[in-house]
Amino acid sequence: MELEQITAADERRHGVAHLSEFISVRDLIERVAKKCPPNTPIPSETTVLFAFVPKNAYSNVAKLYKSKVHMKFQVQTRQLRSSHPDDHYCAALFKYMRSFAVKYRDLTTFLCVDDKSKIDFGEPGLAMSSGVRGKKSLVASNGLLGALDHDQQQKGSLTPSVYLNVEIPETVDDSFYRGQVTVLLKDSVFQPSSAFRHTTEMKRLLGDDMDKVKPFLIIYSDGGPDHRVTYEGVKLSLAAVFKALDLDILVAGRTAPGHSWANPVERIMSVLNLAFQNIALSRQECSAEVEQVLRSCGGMQDIRKKADMVEKLRDEWSG
Description:
With 319 residues, the protein is an alpha/beta fold. It has two domains: 2-64, no CATH class; 87-135 and 145-283, Nucleotidyltransferase, domain 5 (2-Layer Sandwich). The protein contains ten helices and eight strands. Helix 5 (195-206) runs parallel beside helix 6.
């Protein structure tokens, strides 16, 4: 009863909780004991623990658990998906786009695009972790694999833009997760993601040889600010790439809000995390004059403003 009172849950997600204040069996016993009448017999930690449901019902130690109290130890997972009124409509649009691509597979280029989460880097000599949670890595026996224990010493970051040029299958039910993957690393300070920057990257990605560019282009994204097709700036950028590539048909679609997992390029992100795990980055030191200017900057916006006043700041920052 005590657990149900302080556990936050969704009305439509029965059995899914977001908050549990009990961090140990001892903590549970102490909190419940405070609400019991005086001289109430309090069971030991072992007795309470073995009254729980076992974490693994098929292990040898599971026979010690009595399952009288429907509780267990569990690590919070981050696999819930939000719902949206248009999720079925957007899924149907994506199916129609795949069907069109299959029908005209010899004439169509299918691009799935998305930006991976930013990768922070520290100041000179202060390497900062990439933030990707990884497994153990091999290091020298007398070495140390470490990074800063906080993220305060950073003024910039890298933005990986990921493009999946889908190898269009012969049927709509086959996999759309195969193809050529391209990752472009950009400086978040002086190369921020924008609609026109993405379309420029697409043009370079598809090649400068106009004879090899297919007449139909389908672009699928998660609908971020630089991909949202309802924005006028995004429409102008799509019109620009339409003219630059001399296309006959350009189709741009997006996932429903909060449904970026439906974008096929998201399958690549977990693979990219293998390259970013257990690494720490720091920027190259600039000249004394530029470093003095950077010390007064509180973030990326300040650096951009200072770059307009200090000529060599941009060049030295970019290396």
